[in-house]
Every structure is written in structure tokens, then in C-alpha cells.
Amino acid sequence: MTVEPGLLPIEAAESVETPSGKWRSAENFPVGSYLIRRDLRPHVHAFYRFARNADDIADNPELTAADKVRRLDRMAEILDGAPGDESPAAAAMRQSLAETRITAQHCHDVLRAFRLDATKLRYRDWDDLMAYCRYSASPVGRQLLDLHGESRKTWSASDALCSALQVLNHLQDCANDYRLLDRVYLPETDLAAEGIGVEALAAGVSCPGLRRVLDHVLDHTGALVETARGLPRQVVSHGLRWECAVIVQLAARLLRRLRRGDPLAGQVRLRRSDFVAAFLTGIPGSVWA
Questions:
Q1: How many CB atoms are located within 10 Å of the residue 251 CB?
Q2: Residue 222 CA neighbour count, 13 Å, CB half
Q3: pTM above threshold 0.85
């Protein structure tokens, strides 16, 4: 069997899933926490594992773009019922979908985003980045809302929250994304307006032009967070409403930290105090919303 260099034939692979080797730190936001209904937590975790394992494929610097896409395609096939055990996360997700009768579209949407991560390294402008977030971020919130039987009228505010979280994560990791993967989510038009290129991300500190680019992106992201503040009051399920409220508070706090901190000079992360404050302010605020 002839195989292109750098590609592993699917038939010979023990698993298409692979650790990315990419930096991993504590998650910014609670995923399927104890605020979520107990019977739904396993399904939330199944979706998270599915997305995380697919993300690991896209972020693995040892794989070629073609191999990443091939592995992600195989996850999609197993999700849709193809025989094989190369992707335990996809098989578990398929079982979860069968039990909950939730559409598989959200899973296919995130796979579409990870295929983009494998092949698309630059984003033209904010609209281009938001088009990516439609597939990389929005399906996560939509999956949670569908699991809880929430109205799809909640999708707009949820999409805003999930997109904000995605961009904040991009800003946190902008230096490592460029250094390890040559992937840049900062809009090219913003960089060009400041007369700088992506090479500015290789420095140990942000130059004034790059700082202005970061702040401009944070301005857009702040508008998304403001839209997302309306999400908790739209959610009927108490536990999910509380979790949404906490996450909105955490997003606002991380945005403020990124305003003050330099992601090139060091890690800009939420602190334990941020989580405590988000719970103390988010949940009471959602109760009286």
C-alpha cells in the first residue's frame, strides 16, 4: 500500500486520536460542573472529550495538515456510525447522541472548525474570525442548550458568549500559537493598520502597535460579552442558568486581565479569586434576573 509521506493509513492506525503536545493549563471556564443537572453531566463530558480530542489532532505539530484532516474525517465517519474503534471519543459521542436524540450537527460543526485549524493559518479581519467562531465556539453552547431543551431563541446570546470565550483564549495563547503552529487569529487588517506583521508575536513583549491590535480585538470581544449578559435570564434550567451567569462573569474578568496584562510577556490567566468572585456575583444576579 502506497502512503504519502507524513500520512498514516487509517487502516493501520490503532487510534486516530492523538495528544497534541500543545501546552495545556487549567481550563478557563467550568465544563459540565456540578451546576449542571446530574443526568446530563455525562453527555456534557462526552461532547467535551469529543471536541477536545479533535482539537488535539488539529493542534498536534507533528502531524501534517493532510493527516490531521484525514483523522478528523475518520472521527466524523465513526460519529455517523461507521464501524471501527479508532476514535473512542467519537464512538462515545455517537452513543450519547443516540441516548439524548440531540442532532449530530453540533459535532460536525466543531470538526469543520478543526479542519480549518489544520489548513488555515491566518484570518483576514474580524468578520473572518467570527465566521470561524461560528463553527469552533457556537456549537458548544448550542449543544448544552439543546441538551437542556432550551429554546433556540437563546442561541444568539450563547453564540456571543462562546465566541468571546474563543477569542479570549486565542489572545491568551497568541504567542504559542504563532511559535508552535504558525497559526495567527489576530486579524490581518488590524496588524496592517499598525504597520506590523505576525512576526511581532515572536517578541518577548508586545510592541505599541501590537498592544493596540490586542486592545482593538478586546473592544470587539467586550461587545460580545455585553450581548452575552442577557443569556442567563433567557435560560429556563436553573443549573444551566447559573453556569451561564458564572461564565459571563469569568469572561468579563479575563477580558480585564488581558487589558492589563501582556500575553507575550507571560501567561495571563484567571486566578482562584476570579472564580470565587464570579460564583458570588454571577449566581445571585441570575436568581434575581
A1: 27
A2: 12
A3: yes
C-alpha cell of residue 103: 442532532
285 — pLDDT class (breaks 50, 70, 90): low
Which amino acid would we find at residue 226? Answer: E
92: closest CA among 135, 45, 56? Answer: 45
CA distance 77 to 84: 9
pLDDT tops 50 at residue 12:
no
Residue 261 C-alpha cell reads as: 496584562
Contact criterion met (CB below 8 Å) for 222 and 255: yes
Domains of the chain (ranges, CATH numbers): 39-119 (no CATH), 121-289 (1.10.600.10)
User: Cα separation of 158 and 138, whole Å?
Assistant: 7
The x, y and z cell numbers of residue 126, run together, are: 474580524
Cell numbers at residue 25, please? 493549563
Question: Alpha-carbon torsion 182, 185, 186, 191, what sign?
Answer: positive
Dihedrals φ, ψ of 236, to 5°?
-80, -45
Grid cell digits, residue 287: 436568581
- The Cα–Cα gap between 241 and 286 comes to 7
**CB within 8 Å of 182: residues ≥ 6 apart:** 121
* Cα angle 280-284-289, degrees, rounded to a multiple of 5: 145
Model pLDDT for residues 42-82, shown as the tens digit of each residue: 999 999 999 999 999 999 999 999 999 999 999 999 999 99
**CA pair distance 235, 3, nearest whole angstrom:** 50
